[in-house]
Each structure stands twice: as C-alpha cells, then as structure tokens.
Amino acid sequence: MARVFVYGTLKKGQPNYKHMINTAKGLAKFQGRGRTVEKYPLVIAGKYNIPYMLNIPGKGHHVAGEIYLVDDQMLQFLDEFEGCPDMYQRTLMRIEVVEWEGKGGTSEARAAAEGVMECFVYSTTTYPPEWVSLPYHDSYDSSGKHGLAYVLRESR
C-alpha cells in the first residue's frame, strides 16, 4: 500500500473522483485532508483547464488536497491516468495532515499525530515556461471562481 496526495480533479466532489472509488481500478481508501509542507505553484493550464502542481518548491502556496491509501493496482492506474512520467512525475512530498480519518497501525497513527507524512504526489517539471506566470491557487475546485471549467477526457 502507498499513500497518495491528490489536489485536483481526483478529489471528492471533482470530475475524476469516480476513478478513486472504482474498485475495478484498485483500492483507494480516504485517509484525511492535508496540504503541502512546502509551497508550490498550482496552476490551471492548457486548453482543457487541467490543474497542475509545478514542481518548483518554495514558490506559490501550501496546496490543499486529500490523502489516500492505495493498493498497487490503483497506483498503476493513477500512473497511467496521470501520464506518468511524461505529463506528471510521481514524487514523494511532505504533506501536513490537517484532518485525519485514517485507521490503522501505530506508525500510521503516530505520523498523523505528528502532523506530517510523506505521500506520493503527481506534480510536473515538464511544462511550458509561460505556466509559471499563470495565477497560483492554494486549492482546486473545477467549478471555482477562476471560471476555467475542466474538460473531461470523454469530451476532448
């Protein structure tokens, strides 16, 4: 099992959350909410208004998202879904736990209590340079006030 932090369309209430609860793709168990310990630019970019966390530590905001415990099958699905390693790269990042619902072993409980844990995050180092100049967000909502509606893959 691996811990994954999602900040975009895979969160609850967002357009691709359906994949997180589709057990045919593997298991993903919601653990809690968190935010990146370091600041990162979260931008909405491209003609499909996709949220991207640019892997530029120290610039931007502490990005909010959700922490999931996933099995190997779901992790493989997420790698494919996220276009890893070309579009996004899966890297370990430190995530500050904001709200914890996870149940389990003592190491997990201790990590949650300490407030910081390492999670895999899909961020990118492969982006057009002009994306650095886009507005930065601390949280993503596909129907947020930014007015940039996400375009589902089925509609592209």
From TrEMBL:
One MF term in the entry's GO annotations: gamma-glutamylaminecyclotransferase activity
Keyword Lyase: yes
Gene3D superfamilies in alphabetical order: Gamma-glutamyl cyclotransferase-like
Residue spans crossing the bilayer: none
Location of the Gamma-glutamylcyclotransferase AIG2-like domain: 4-122
EC id: 4.3.2.8
Superkingdom classification of source: Eukaryota
UniProt record similarity statement: Belongs to the gamma-glutamylcyclotransferase family.
Protein name: Gamma-glutamylaminecyclotransferase
Organism: Rhinopomastus cyanomelas (Common scimitarbill)
Native organism taxonomy: Eukaryota, Metazoa, Chordata, Craniata, Vertebrata
Gene name of the encoded protein: Ggact
